[in-house]
Amino acid sequence: MKPASLEYVRPRSMEEALAVLSDETANAKIFAGGQSLGPMLNLRLTRPAKLVDIRHIPELKAVRADARLCSIGATFTHAELEDGAIEDFTRGLLPYVARGIAYRAVRNRGTVGGSLAHADPAADWVSTMAAIDATIVIRGQAGERRVPAQQFLAGAFTTELGDTELLTAVELPRFSAAARWGYYKVCRKTGEFAKAIGLAIQDPKIGLFRILAGSPEGRPALLTRSAETLATRGAEHAARDAREEIEEVLPNLAPAHRQQLIAAVQRSLGQILLVEAA
Amino acid sequence: MLEVAFLRSPVAHAIIRERRKPTGFESSVVFNEDMEGVSPITTRSSIPGYKVSDYPALAADRVRFVGEIVAMCLAANRAAAEDLCELVEIEYDELDPIVTCAAGRSPGVKPLHEEWADNLFLRTSLDQGIDDVIANAPVVVELELSTARQVMHPMEGKGLVAWWDHRAGQLVVQTSTQVPHLIRIGLAECLGIPQAIIRVAAPDVGGGFGYKCMLMPEEVAVAWLAYTRKGAFRWIEDRREHLTAGANARQHEYKIKAYADNRGRFLGLDAEVAIDCGAYSVWPFSACLEAAQAGGNLPGPYDLQAYRCSTFSVATNKPPFAPYRGVARPGVCFAIELTIDAIAKAVGREAWEVRLENLVAASAMPYTNITKKFYDSGDYPASLLQVKQMIGFERIRSEPRRDAKGRYLGVGFATYTEQSAHGTKVFAQWGLPLVPGFDQAHVKLTPDGALEVKAGIHTIGQGLETTLAQIAHEQTRVPLKDIRVTLGDTANTPFSTGAYASRGIVMTGGAVSVAAEIVAGRIKSIAAHLLQVRAEDVSFRDGGIFAGEASVSYEDVGRAWYMRPDQLPDAVDRGGLEATGAYKPQVDTGVFSYASHAAYVAVDAETGLVEILDYAICEDCGTMVNPMIVDGQTIGGAAQGVGTALFEESPYDDNGQPLASTLIDYLLPGPTELPRFRITHMETPSPFSAHGLKGVGEGGAIAPAGALVNAINDALTPLNAAVREIPATPERILAAIAAAKPTLGNVA
């Protein structure tokens, strides 16, 4: 289990990185934390000719924020979010999610952008960013474009990202003090990829009401009708609707798995109720 | 030194039509035909009907499992050797694989080994008379149970370095093994060279669990390289090789009919056990050990008077089945313990009561059970009552069946016996090519008064350096800090068949005791001479040898024998200050450790997740040499048992492809998944072994699947659901609930 021979490059700027990537014949692969790519290289499941290590590009470690939007650079690690290295725009949601990812050793190296670009549908950030209604910022030599997180993931391990492009940042809405959220994942053991993720967010001040069901089967499902119920009638009613909506939008799941997903979503809504009751 | 990578079969069953080496690398790639004169690994057995499989180190004309070695590639480093593997061309004509026991047993199936008449390594039938019971028993319980294929996962996988020692004219094989002396025998047989020119040494092993007590094809292949090319070669197993080609174990299927009276008193047991043995028999433990252990141990610690059991050791297109910690007993314990609970349910009593009523009583000891196992000593019912109290059974029953989160609560028990340190006659009866006799150990006082202990068994993490030193200290009173234990090197230790079957402390411990006692006597006689008293007047005390207030040190004794023999009389014992002792217990049938486990769990009926709330163990391994080590063995084994019960599974698809090839897919329990095992000890010395010792290496792993699944099923009682397959994954638990209730959705 050793990787095949490859060339390693370490660009120091975005321009340098994009220049390396722009050569479509180079068979280059972007390397950030390496927590998924490393094992895949060792197993020779992926065999790039060139590994482009983007961890030394200052712009990818930038934070920008105003009253409405916040942007987090792609190479922030899960541990940095967990530890509060950047301002918490989400009233605790991002640090909470970060803390539950894999193990600390993985979190020390794994990055938010890397996780999104790898696009394992069971990964925490894939579901979280889609639920937050985040925007993925993508740079190519032609310029910058933005894709809503929910659309960024085309399917399991496939994204909107082109071979010559770089995921540079994630933009999030700034939650208000009225924001409430719940996050529940079903895992058999600590550090395991989730079997089911439930995420619920309500922030009436900014008009954000989202409910999401995430699973290893593919793109996470936004439960729009239940979110509507959350906005109009509250979490308890939304939890009732969520069961029906999951059965509707994910009809092909195995029954046991659907059951877990329903439980995860209902429990994330339950957490909102608990916070409200407190 | 060159690094070895193995090219392994990507298909489960095929004829190799053609193989081609890349041009320019003819000597860096080795095929079966290059290894002229090397014999396949062949395990013979004297059991009638047992079928022999030839397991070549490198596949000859056929591959029988994904992961079987087809070529050996050499390069300066592992990455380059793996590059070379990719350049080798093999053409396969695929054959239908046999992936399940049912398929392997179906009439007309083409045997995996062409010369066989059917596809079974072995079929056994034991009938101790059950017809009367079948005709008359008022209660009949039927169960179908299965246990998953597991992989052992010691912290360190397999690995070896082999080189030719030009000065000694010797092939040196440093390999990660539990049984260095056996590996030397096996290598000599396969390579066709004398044992004297092979030295096998095992440095730090990093865990074995049974995986490292068999001769591996990789050992034969790499040793052959070093021998024929007179160079140095290394292979280090990676985790994917371990998962897909290595340490397979545990996969059983049971069909059970149990007969009882209206109180739940066991009247008879009628069972059929099928074992998914993989493609080849391992050496020396064979493909029939598992079945022999399963059939022999299924009655467990219970007083059973009628028993019938058939076993089927089925050949399948999977890696060979290896003897994993507990060998068959985690499976049979799971089977019999679920059976007891099912009987209890059928007669409307608490499972612990029915269990208690059926356990062999202390007053019946020693007790010969229906399969002729000789339970030497102990109080099985007391251990059960102890864990019942520890787990707080009465309190649990007085509380609601659901917790504040809505989870279902349940408590479960399992009791087992563990035959440990079984010896000559038992192994001879199993027909194995290896039959252990006396274990030997060598003890020597050094010129400066320290003690050297050498034994051919090996330490693989079980703390034998400590416990053997304690036994040597017990006899000689040489301070523990001055005792040095050397193990596991054929060049400087007496012969032992090695570390397996929970035998180390009993067998080698006994041998150390014998040798140390001899040396202690000689120390005393030299000391007596130095002190000018009679030998019977000296005693060991305070780190010295005393006669009244006068004393000499161990160093004085050592110096006198080795450096100043002029101080000694002519009639001194010429054996000197070293001795080799040999030992086996008074009975070959083993000494039986036992324990009861109790588990308290919460089952989330919406997600299928199980939390272990509490876990209590009461064990008895006879005299405890070192209680911390007993605890360590018990905890480690129980942790693996939790893996068996809830997590570990190596599934194969219909094409015989392994679906768990990384630790993402093969779940091992980690610290956060394990309970704090609360342990109490009983100490019933065996009447038949030195110091009353019994083995403790495997026991912890045996009971958790039984106790935990019984607890899960107790929790699921209000839902009328029961799990019959392990691991009890969320999917299986939810499926069991769904099967009991028409719609999944209405559980909450």
What is the structure about, briefly put?
The complex is a heterodimer of chains A (278) and B (748). Chain A is of the alpha+beta class and 278 residues long.
> Proportion of β residues of chain A?
25-35%
Strand percentage of chain B? 25-35%
Annotation field: number of helices of chain A = 11
Q: Would you identify the CATH H-level superfamily of the largest domain in chain B?
A: Aldehyde oxidase/xanthine dehydrogenase, molybdopterin binding domain
Strand sequence of the main sheet of chain B, in spatial order? 3-7-1-15-12-13-14
**Secondary structure tally: strands of chain A:** 14
Question: Any idea of the CATH topology of the largest domain in chain A?
Answer: Uridine Diphospho-n-acetylenolpyruvylglucosamine Reductase, domain 3
Characterize the biggest β-sheet of chain A.
Answer: 5 strands, antiparallel
Q: Can you identify the CATH class of the largest domain in chain A?
A: Alpha Beta
Oligomer: heterodimer
Structural class by secondary-structure content of chain A: alpha+beta
* Poorly predicted segments of chain A: none
Q: What CATH architecture label of the largest domain in chain B applies?
A: 2-Layer Sandwich
- Number of contiguous helices of chain B: 18
Taken together, the total number of domains of chain B comes to 3
Task: Give the helix/strand layout.
The complex is a heterodimer of chains A (278) and B (748).
Chain A: E1 7-9, H1 14-22, E2 28-31, H2 37-42, E3 50-53, E4 63-65, E5 69-73, H3 78-82, H4 93-99, H5 104-109, H6 112-118, H7 124-132, E6 135-140, E7 143-148, H8 149-152, E8 153-155, E9 158-159, E10 166-173, E11 180-186, E12 196-203, E13 208-215, E14 218-222, H9 224-233, H10 235-249, H11 255-277
Chain B: E1 2-8, E2 14-20, E3 29-30, E4 41-42, E5 54-55, E6 62-63, E7 69-75, H1 78-87, E8 89-94, H2 101-105, E9 120-127, H3 131-136, E10 139-147, E11 150-151, E12 159-165, E13 170-175, H4 180-191, E14 198-201, H5 217-229, E15 232-236, H6 239-246, E16 248-249, E17 252-260, E18 266-276, H7 289-297, E19 307-314, H8 329-347, H9 351-358, E20 367-368, E21 374-375, H10 380-391, H11 393-398, E22 408-420, H12 424-429, E23 439-445, E24 451-455, H13 464-476, E25 483-487, H14 504-531, E26 539-541, E27 544-547, E28 550-552, H15 554-562, E29 578-583, E30 591-603, E31 610-620, H16 627-647, E32 677-682, H17 704-715, E33 725-726, H18 730-740
Parallel strand pairs in B: 1-15, 10-33, 13-14, 18-19, 24-25, 31-32
Antiparallel strand pairs in B: 1-7, 2-6, 2-8, 3-7, 4-5, 9-19, 10-17, 11-16, 12-13, 12-15, 17-18, 20-21, 22-30, 23-24, 23-29, 26-27, 27-28, 30-31
